Amino acid sequence: MAVTEGELLWTPSAAFAARSQVAKFTNWLREERGLDFKDYEALRQWSVTEIEGFWAAVWDYFEIVSDAPPAQVLDRRVMPGAKWFQGARVNYAEHLLRYEAKAKPGEAAIHHLAENRPLAQLSWQELGRQVRVLATQLRAMGIKPGDRIVSYMPNVPETTVAMIATIAIGAVWSSAAPEFGTKTVTERFAQIEPSLIFVCDGYRFGGKDFARAAEVKQIVSALPTLKHVVWLPFLYPDKTEAPVEGAKSWASMLSGADVPRESFKYERVDCDHPIWVMFSSGTTGLPKAIVHGHVGVLVEHFKVMSFHLNLGPGSVMFFYSTTGWMMYNLVVSSLLTGAAAVQYDGSPVYPDLDLLWKMAAETGAATFGASPTFVQMMEKAKLKPGEKFDLSKLEAALLGGAPSTPETFKWFYDNVKADLWVTSQSGGTELCSGFVGASPTLPVHAGEIQARCLGMDVRAWSDDGKEVVDEVGELVCLKPFPSMPIFFWGDTDGKRYHEAYFDVFPGVWRHGDFIKINSRGGCYIYGRSDSTLNRFGVRIGTAEIYRAVEQVEEIANSLVVCCELEGGNFFMPLYLKLKPGFALDDALVKKITAKLRSDCSPRHVPDKMYVVAEIPYTLTGKKMEVPVRKILMGWPLEKAASRDAMMNPASIDWYIDFADTSKDYVKPAAPLGGKK
C-alpha cells in the first residue's frame, strides 16, 4: 500500500479515451462548430472563457427539448442574478424518461436492493408507466405547478417515482431521509409550506428495524399547509393501516389507468421555475432552503454525468447515498444519459462487509461510488473484492463526500482492479453537482482530483483575493454557472444568498472549501474553510447541534467543530459549558447523545464531549468555530484568530492547550494554511 501523493497510478488506454463521452463531444465540436482542442485542458479553458458558447454547445449536443428556443444563453455575467436560457420552456423529468422510447423491452432503468427487500429491477417501461399514473393522480388531487411536495422516504424506487412524477407536473420536490429526527425534518419542510407529503412507516439499518409511525404523526401535525399524505408501508408491508387519518396508500395512488407515453403532457416551465428545494446543513440559523431551476440542473447534469462520469446507454451507476443527500439526486440524474441507476437502502456493511461489491457484480455496475470512509473499512478488513466477484464490467470508482487519500486510491488498484479509472469529485448541495472532478481522458494520480470541471471557472485564492498555484487557498468560482441556486426560499431580499457565497469576495462565488490546484491542473480538497461540519462525507450544520444540545437543562452553552485528519479520518469534539452544580458524567453524556440522535440523526453525535469554562466569541457575538477548528488542525493562534477581535480573549487559551496536549486525536503534522 506504500504510495506517495501525486504518484501516477493509471493512464487511460487510447481506446478507452477515444470512446469516452467527452471525446465524442470534442469530435462533435470539431465537426459542428469548427473548434479543435488538443486535450482536456484546452477544452476546459475554452469552456470557462467562452461560457456562453460552451453551454450553447451542451444545449445543442444533448438536443434539449423546449417549447421554444432560448432567446439567449446568458443574460449577463453577474453573480448572483445571472439568468440562463431565458425564453426556453423545458421539463427535467421529460428528459429523465426520454430513453424509455429507445429502451429494449424489460431493460432495467433501476436496480434496487434494501435490507428488507431482495435485489430486483424496474424496467424503463414500468418506471415510465408508474410515473405517468402517479403524476396524473397528483394532478387530479389538485396539485399545481409550483406546489411543494415533500418526502420522508427511503432510497427505493417508490421515492424516485414520486420525485419524477412531482417534477413532471411542475411541482417542487424536497426530500428528507427517514433517519432524520422530527425537528430536523420540520425545520426544513415548514419553510416551504408543502401541500403533500410522501411518508414511510420506517426503515431497516444494520439488521435493526426503526419504526417511524410516531415521527410521521409529529411531522404531519407540524406542517399545517399539508392537504394530502401518501403512505408507503415499507418496513411492515403487511400492515397497511396508515398512522395519519385520511392518508392515501401508495398502492391506491398507482391503481389508476395506464397513461400512454405519447399522450402524457409534461409541464414545461420557464427557466427560473423551481425544480426542487435542497437544504443546507444549517450552520447559522435555520437550514438554507436552496432552490434550483429546471434549466440549470438539466444542462449541468447532462454535462457532469456524461463528460465527467462517462455514462451512457448500457452503463450502470451506483453511489451509496440516502435520500437526504444531493448524491441521491445525482444518481437519479444518471437516467438522463440512458444509464441505469442502482439504489440501495441500508447499511453498506451488513450483513457482510462486501455486500455492496456483491451488488455491483450482480447489477453489472460500470461505476461504483462510495465515501473514502467505506474504503477504509474495506482496507482494515483486508477485503479483496476483485478476487471474489466478477467485476469485469466495472470501469470507474467514484469517491465523494470527503477528501480522499493516496492510500484510498491505491487500495482500488491493489484490491479491485488494475485497469480502473479511480475518480474523486467535489462540489456540493449548492450546485447539486461538482466544481472539480474527473475526465476519462486524463491519467490518475494518487489522492488527486483529476481536473476542474468543464464550465466551472474554479481557482484557488489567497485571503487577499490573489490566485495561488501549488498552495492551499479558498475555492472560488469566477463566472456564473447554470446550476447556481436561483434563490433561497423565503429569502425575499436575497440577503442570505449573498451572505452565503459573496460576502467575502463580492461578485465571486466563495464555496467554503480549502483547495490546492497544482501546475498540471490536478486538485486537492482539504475540507471546509467555514464552520460547516463535514464528517464522513455528511455535511452537518453546527446550529442543528446547538439547538438540540442547548435544550438539555444541564447545558449553558456549547461549541462543536470537525477536523479532517491524516488518513482520511475525522475528529468531531463537542465542548460544553455546564450550568452550576452539574457534571459531565455518563448519564449526561447518554442524555445528550439521545437528544442528538432523536432531534437530528446518529451522525450528529460527536466523537467526544469536554467541559470548558468558556465558549469563545467574537466581538460581534459569533461563536469562534473556525478559529478553534484551525487551532486543532495545527494553526498558530496569530493565523487562526485575533485576540483583539474576541469578546473573551482568555477563553481561547484552553483550546490551544487542548490542541497541544490532547491524546484523543492525532493532530496533523502541519497546518493546511501555512507553516507552524
Total beta strand runs? 33
Name the CATH architecture of the largest domain. Answer: 3-Layer(aba) Sandwich
Low-confidence stretches: none
* Total number of domains: 3
N- and C-termini, Cα separation = 29 Å
Main sheet summary = 7 strands, mixed
Protein name: Acetoacetyl-CoA synthetase
Family: Belongs to the ATP-dependent AMP-binding enzyme family.
GO molecular function: acetoacetate-CoA ligase activity; ATP binding
Domain AMP-dependent synthetase/ligase: 100-477
Fold blueprint:
Blueprint: E1 8-10, H1 14-18, H2 21-33, H3 40-49, H4 51-61, H5 92-96, E2 108-114, E3 117-123, H6 124-140, E4 148-152, H7 157-168, E5 172-176, H8 182-189, E6 196-200, E7 202-205, E8 208-211, H9 213-221, E9 228-232, E10 248-249, H10 250-253, E11 274-279, E12 289-293, H11 294-308, E13 316-319, H12 326-333, E14 340-345, H13 355-363, E15 367-370, H14 372-380, H15 385-388, E16 396-399, H16 406-415, E17 421-424, E18 426-428, E19 433-437, E20 444-445, E21 451-452, E22 458-461, E23 472-477, E24 487-488, H17 495-501, E25 509-517, E26 523-528, E27 533-535, E28 538-540, H18 542-549, E29 555-560, E30 563-564, E31 570-571, E32 573-578, H19 586-599, E33 608-611, H20 625-632, H21 637-640, H22 652-661
Parallel strand pairs: 2-14, 4-5, 4-6, 6-9, 9-10, 13-14, 13-15, 15-16, 16-17, 32-33
Antiparallel strand pairs: 1-20, 2-3, 7-8, 11-12, 12-24, 18-19, 19-21, 22-23, 23-25, 25-26, 27-28, 29-32, 30-31
